[in-house]
Structure formats: C-alpha cells, structure tokens
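batch_manifest entry 22 of 60
target: Ubiquitin-like domain-containing protein
source organism: Poecilia latipinna
requested by: lab member K.T.
priority: normal
notes from requester: please return tokens only, no post-processing; we will run our own comparison against the previous entry in this batch. if the run fails, retry once and flag.
--- input ---
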Amino acid sequence: MIFLTCVAVFVRFNRGPGVAVELSAAARVAELKEIVASQQGVPAQALRVLFAGRELQSSASLQVSSHSDVQVVFTWRPPHLVSSSPGVLLSGL
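--- output ---
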C-alpha cells in the first residue's frame, strides 16, 4: 500500500492575494502552475514559479516542505506588445 503525503504551500501571486494550495509531496512544478492558472484565469505557460530565490522548471519536482512560501509570477505579454528586439515595446497602442 502506498501512502501519499500532502503538503500545503502558500502561493504568493503578483496579480492578487496569496492562497494556500495542497499538493502531493511528489508534485511537479507544472501541477502547481496548472492549479494557480485555473484559480487566476491565466495560462499556465505564462507563470514562473520561484522558491528560495530560484526559478523552478516545470518538469522539476516541487520538493518544498509543508507551509513553505512559493512565489508565482505572471509574465504573459500579449503578442502585440512583444517586439523582435529584446527590451523594446512597440509604441502606438
């Protein structure tokens, strides 16, 4: 018999209030992104997950202890605001 341990992490989101999220101890970062994306109504691929000052890759295991704080940053830019030159926003919007 396999027992799954759940961890509760507090997600701080740059577009709104933080929320507590329960995940299995073996959860991947991509699972956290999907949960936050559905709660916030944003695309999961536009989210970055930061923990202890480092960005966590979607394929990585979350590996945080219960009651940890995780920062989720929304980085989506609509295509009409993105330039082919780095650091340049299109004007005239």
